[in-house]
Amino acid sequence: MSVPAAPLEAPPGQPKKAATAAWIGSALEYYDFFIYGSAAALIFPEIFFDESDPATATLLSLATFGVAYAARPIGALFLGHFGDKLGRKKIMVFTLMLMGLSTFLIGCLPTREQVGTLAPVLLVLCRVLQGISAAGEQASANSMSLEHAPPGRRGFFTSFTLSGTQGGQLLATLVFIPVAALPEDQLLAWGWRIPFWLSFAVAVAGYVIRRTLHETPTFTQQAATEGVPKMPLAVLLREHWADVLRVVAAALVASVSTIFTVWALSYATSDSVGMDRTSMLWVGALANLVALGAIPLWATLSDRIGRRPVFLLGAAGSAVTMFAYLWAISTGSYPLVLVLGIVAFGVVYSAANGVWPSFYGEMFSTRVRLSGMAIGTQIGFAIAGFAVTFAAQIAGPDGDNWSAVALFTAALCVPPVIAALTARETHKVPTERLGERAEQGTTGREKVTA
Questions:
Q1: Sign of the dihedral defined by the CA atoms of residues 328, 62, 279, 35, in that order
Q2: In 3-state terms, what secondary structure has residue 439?
Q3: pLDDT exceeds cutoff 90 at 410
Q4: Does the pLDDT at position 441 exceed 50?
Q5: Pick from 280, 225, 296: which is nearest to 22 by CA?
Q6: Does the keyword Ribonucleoprotein apply (predicted)?
Q7: Which long-range contacts (CB under 8 A, 24 or more apart) does 106-110 make?
Q8: pLDDT, average across residues 103-111
Q9: Treating both helix axes as pointing N-terminal to C-terminal, what angle do 369-394 and 241-250 enclose, rounded to 10 degrees?
Q10: Bigger pLDDT: 411 vs 82
Q11: Do β-strands 446-448 and 438-440 pair in parallel, antiparallel, or remain unpaired?
Q12: Can you tell me the distance from the alpha carbon of 251 to that of 377, in angstroms, rounded to the nearest whole number?
């Protein structure tokens, strides 16, 4: 049996550059993705759907938000396959350009008043392209930063991808605040288009940042020694099927984000509560600002005590804090909503959100890591995306049954808890040995064997 080549060293400064590129690229990409969520909750029911039935229009608009999540598993199959064959860098550049183009086109779409039912059809098509792009974005960025990270700091470096996601959500919210403050006629006529048109600059900036990255040392070594698999999906399902299922279940924790970002915003600004649109956008902005600091702190803690306890805290804690946040909205008390929104989303949810890039990525070997992360997360995220639509139905005809929505969200946090409890702890396993079969020794310490 041949002796594996020694791991290749990353060029000086490349781990920081990879993490920075993951942060900035994800921020720019998810700016595009999240401005759609704000528009779906606040604008699209009036300009793309039948205004004579506001409840149904809102439901259909929120359903288009979920359409992207339905497209993501398809994108994961395609982009995961090529990411494990061609490398992480190529997929990172492709996904950013596709997201920028599809988002820019949304800003150019005619409304229902102009072209009738063709308008929502075109909207859904562009949303599908957004979903395909997002399917490969996080998996490729996570793989890039994890495989470049120095020993003992994979949690911290991979967390930059999710910090970037929160940064993109913050940027999207900040852009929408002045837009939402426009007079109603200007907002619906042209104001809503501005955040989508800005995606052109997003795509250009992201391309400049990512094209200078080096491919990861572990992927380069894999390609040079053993070669890349012809069918990464076949290898993944043969050797890592249990971990794929585990990631699917764990990824349902993203339901907390979609309920907080979209449904809660729609509920708070509905006639039954009547909170100010701009004020609620500020809740999301400040919660994301806090998350920018909390995510790397939780990830650093996971480098010391392990991925599982931090993820479990975030998943189980989010099930509890969502009740508190939605209850606060039902009271109409803005100070209460602000404080509990920051605690629920900015602090508690960030524990799970900050650690999952390393937690999931460490379950797979280099040759199938991008496929495993992409397929596992995107199936889970697809369910999480439609959680918004289900929440709108569960909330009843008046859309005010917040306790049912909170219970529904808490139920979706149960599979992530179970997945984490059954997962291996991998924070001390060397990068080149990740994904090997783990066996429990008689001493109680985890033993890794080939």
A1: positive
A2: strand
A3: yes
A4: no
A5: 296
A6: no
A7: 106/36, 106/196, 107/193, 107/194, 107/195, 107/196, 107/197, 107/199, 108/193, 108/196, 108/197
A8: 90
A9: 30
A10: 411
A11: antiparallel
A12: 5
